[in-house]
Amino acid sequence: MTKIQWFPGHMQKSLRDIQSKLKLVDLLIVMLDARIPFSSINWELLKILNNKPFLILLNKSSLADENQNKPFIEFLQRKQFPYLFIDVKYKKNIHCILPFVRKILFHRIKKYPKILKLMVVGIPNVGKSTLINSLCQRKATLTANIPGITKQLQWINLSDNIKLMDTPGVLYPKITNPLVGYSLVLCSCIKETLFTTTEILKYILTYFQKYYPKYLKQLFYLTKEETQTKNLFQLINKKNKSILTPDKMFFIILNKIKKEKIKKVNFDIGLISLLL
Known about the structure:
It is found in: Cytoplasm. This protein has 276 residues and is α/β, with parallel strands linked by helices. It has helices spanning 9-21, 43-47, 66-79, 97-104, 106-111, 128-136, 178-186, 197-211, 213-220, 232-239, 246-258, 269-272, and strands at residues 4-5, 27-33, 54-59, 83-85, 116-122, 154-159, 162-166, 174-175. The chain is built from twelve helices and eight strands.
């Protein structure tokens, strides 16, 4: 796979804007997708924090494989990074976020009581705007299950003493590891058109075969033994007595992921070990 360039002009500008606004905020909320904790970290963002307090929120945790996330949790604990598993859609641990923020900023609040200003950052489509809407208990920002909806920085009043700055999703300039690219596509953080369908279909069939064969059984009516067949694409077409093109087969899988029919998964299993 060639290096993927996914850094539109608005992302480059947003990264500069975020860096220039850091001095205005007390804490950064860094949002990740719990299904792809490694791939959804933007290390470029973390580099510009300059010792600014932050809290990592791993969103969509109801869809994630807890067992496969244990090595990533160990990494966060070793680094002493504060973190919280949440699920905005299902209101999981949303009530814990602001108390956690106040705990991190306890000494600062005690010394300088004032309006707290928070900034929410992360790559596209990890749920930043949805989180803000949930905390506001109203629709304050646009949301959609496609990358790149928020285009500019905007302040939102959360309460009388808390303000949130929503930011556009900012991805790293280059995706050099193909596994990262595949993970981002499967969780709708980048457009699937950046890869050939055949390439990513072959990857996800092999991935399910190795880690989650039950989804091959459910999606394509395979037996346990059939899920381990070498040429899955041909077998699936033969088994279903139809001709599924690579595009159609990949669409079936991606659509099931988007509709949360495929859950309790981690698409970063081969990547998290890079942190150890």
